[in-house]
Amino acid sequence: MRNIYLDNAATTKVDEKVVREMLPYFTEKYGNASSQHLVGQEAKRALQESRHVIAKSINAKDDEIIFTSGGTESNNLALKGLFFANKEAGTEKNHIITTKIEHDCVLNSCKWLEKQGAKITCIDVNSEGFVNINQLKQSITPNTLVVSIIHGNNEIGTIQDIEEIGKICREKGVYFHIDACQSYTKTPINVKKQNLDLVTLNSHKIHGPKGVGALYIREGIKIIPLAHGGGHEKALRNGTENVSGIVGFAKSVNLASSGDIKHMTKLRDYLIEEILKIPNTKLNGAKGDKRLCNNINISFNNIEGEAIGGYLDSYGICSSTGSACSSHTLETSHVLKAIGLSNLQANTTLRLSLSKYTTKEEIDYTLEILKKVVEKLRRMSPIK
Amino acid sequence: MENRCESLYSKEVIKHFKNPKNMGEMKDADAVGKVGNPRCGDILRVFLKIEKKKINGKEKDYIKDIKFQTFGCMAAIAVSSVLTEMVKGKTIEEAKKLKNNEIVKKLGGLPAIKYHCSLLGAEALNEAIKNYESRLLKKDGDGFDWTTSLKKKK
């Protein structure tokens, strides 16, 4: 049976070159980077080299990069670390501004921080998913600690104008954190040019291994760790470093190329154009270069995304709903709600996300099957 | 063809989802039941064709044909399909007794968060039966001899 993987926003296949790079760090160079002997120093060197790769990719200094277990941990560390560092220092800064289209790990961290005394403001987005900049400006108070915004949205692919938001935050003297899990290596991130203070990065969305990520923390910014321990990662992320994972992460960053972006963009635009030829379909999110190069999110009127996904799966095509009736929850996607979709419309949504491995032939096959499936489900639907 | 959703759904759910039985609209239905779940957005519509037949010498209303239309997830579609198979040919009395847990059992189980889909199926069937019965009462008002019909049933 065919296996067409169009769920790369969930996770990606690890590049075989990444695996090859990682392998020696399991059985040969297995040292603890904190050890002073040869094996340990080998691991330490790998760690330093990897840190340099990540730092360079976003125009940061090496020691501004903290390795973590992934996007969720980095987002938690950024927000909770900042909040409690300020609480400890006795500052009045307890206000966090975020948006209505964040990943759950940011929204749920904020909800929890609210119980710890934080004030949270969630900014609206427009129908394409762009943050309301005026509302953002007006929401900043002398107590505002940080503005936290998802760079490229995981569901609808909208890429925020972080340069403009970064400028506003720097002028107003508040920290700016971006969650770049989906956008990293797909659209430029430059911490100096874009005035970024904290940046969440992860590995498994870019053909690296799972369980590895990083947090960029601009020099001089005080945060406190989530877990206390032996002083790893400048005592901000304690616990023996995942050296093999980090080496793989760095390799995946090194392998990312502008050619991949061009390839995905071309296929994305072709797929969107062809799907929109099916009657009663609508693209959710932004268009063109303001959209992640691998994201397609479409509402198919009168049929449910989960059912479309179920049929696609039986033809070997992996997709996602990112909406209600997904495997974990019945709640309608907060992102689709935020861009103005009703519960019913949100349930008709299907997300397809491409990778550098996706081929034109796979897209053509997917289109052929998708048309059949949509027709079948529409015949079945009581809503016309 | 295999289906990889099997980690979430039983084989029976996948079977019914992929080849739903009795799917479509019924133009000359005697009764229609429609229910919706405002939370997950699913909508089920059940059509009934009802006739009489003698069972042990007694004339009874039975479901001669049944069709469904569903706007919903895989579970909702599978519930609709299996439900129609379970009650097709049954008397109204028997169909009324159908419980949602029997539907779940017939499907080889449903994930906990999809359990409500089975309720929706049972409700749609009940609505259709209610619709039929209320039509009978109306027919009564229009000169239909309801008492004779009831006596006959006894």
Which pair has the most extensive contact? A-B, 28 and 32 residues
Helix/strand/pairing class of chain A, anyone? alpha/beta
Low-confidence stretches of chain A: none
The main sheet of chain B comes to: 3 strands, antiparallel
CATH superfamily of the largest domain in chain A: Type I PLP-dependent aspartate aminotransferase-like (Major domain)
Order of helices and strands of chain A: EHHHEHEHEHEHEEEHHEEHEHHEH
Give Rg of chain A in angstroms. 21 Å
- Per CATH, the class of the largest domain in chain A reads Alpha Beta
Number of helices of chain A: 13
Mean pLDDT of chain A: 96
The level of helicity of chain B is 40-55%
- Structural class estimated from helices and strands of chain B: alpha+beta
CATH architecture of chain B: Alpha-Beta Complex
Mean pLDDT across every amino acid position of chain B: 86
Q: What strand line-up does the widest sheet of chain A have?
A: 2-8-7-6-5-3-4
Determine the CATH topology of chain B.
Sufe protein. Chain: A
Number of domains of chain B: 1
Count up the domains of chain A.
2
Give the topology:
The complex is a heterodimer of chains A (384) and B (154).
Chain A: E1 4-5, H1 16-22, H2 24-27, H3 38-57, E2 65-68, H4 71-89, E3 95-99, H5 104-115, E4 119-123, H6 133-139, E5 144-150, H7 162-172, E6 175-179, E7 198-202, E8 213-217, H8 243-255, H9 258-275, E9 281-283, E10 295-300, H10 305-314, E11 317-318, H11 334-338, H12 343-346, E12 349-353, H13 360-380
Parallel strand pairs in A: 1-11, 3-4, 3-5, 5-6, 6-7
Antiparallel strand pairs in A: 2-8, 7-8, 9-10, 10-12
Helix pairs in contact in A: 1-8, 3-8, 4-5, 9-13, 10-13
Chain B: H1 11-18, E1 31-36, E2 43-55, E3 58-71, H2 74-87, H3 92-96, H4 100-106, H5 115-141, H6 146-153
Antiparallel strand pairs in B: 1-2, 2-3
Helix pairs in contact in B: 1-2, 2-5, 4-5
